[in-house]
Amino acid sequence: VQLVESGGGLVQPGGSLRLSCAASGFTFSNYVMTWHRQAPGKERELVARISSIGGFTNYADSVKGRFTISRDNAKNTVYLQMNSLKAEDTAVYYCNPAGIRSWGQGTQVTVSS
């Protein structure tokens, strides 16, 4: 299993970023995909998940209404559109296929003025 996250960076509060995760080594279209994040000194937390064919999504309360998860099964890629970013969104973001204990290197998101 290989997971390669990208799209992070430094953004001002209120700004937007779109994260991507390219997946390989498993049958992507069969799996629920998730985004997690881990802030310094905190445990990794689930941010969003999307069903295998993309019909169902759910979000942590802290990001509901601001983040949108989507997927392209033809490209084996899952996305996280992040709008109205806040300082508390600063973390390393990881994607993960539900039920598979495998993590990529993550992508750093820093929200700061």
Secondary-structure class: mainly beta
Share of residues in helices: under 10%
Largest sheet: 6 strands, mixed
Uncertain ranges: none
Strand order of the largest sheet: 2-10-9-4-5-6
> Could you tell me the mean pLDDT?
96
Principal-axis shape: globular
What is the number of strand segments?
10
What does this molecule look like?
With 113 residues, this protein is mostly beta strands. The chain has strands at residues 2-6, 9-11, 17-24, 33-38, 45-50, 57-59, 67-72, 77-82, 91-97, 107-111. The strands form two sheets. A six-stranded mixed beta sheet has the order 2-10-9-4-5-6, with no helix packed on it. The relative contact order is 0.33.
What would the keywords be for this entry?
113 residues, mainly beta, six-stranded mixed sheet, four-stranded antiparallel sheet, 10 strands, 0% helix, 49% strand, globular
What's the layout of helices and strands?
Blueprint: E1 2-6, E2 9-11, E3 17-24, E4 33-38, E5 45-50, E6 57-59, E7 67-72, E8 77-82, E9 91-97, E10 107-111
Parallel strand pairs: 2-10
Antiparallel strand pairs: 1-3, 3-8, 4-5, 4-9, 5-6, 7-8, 9-10
Task: Write a compact overview of the structure shown.
By secondary structure, the chain is an all-beta fold. The protein is built from no helices and 10 strands.
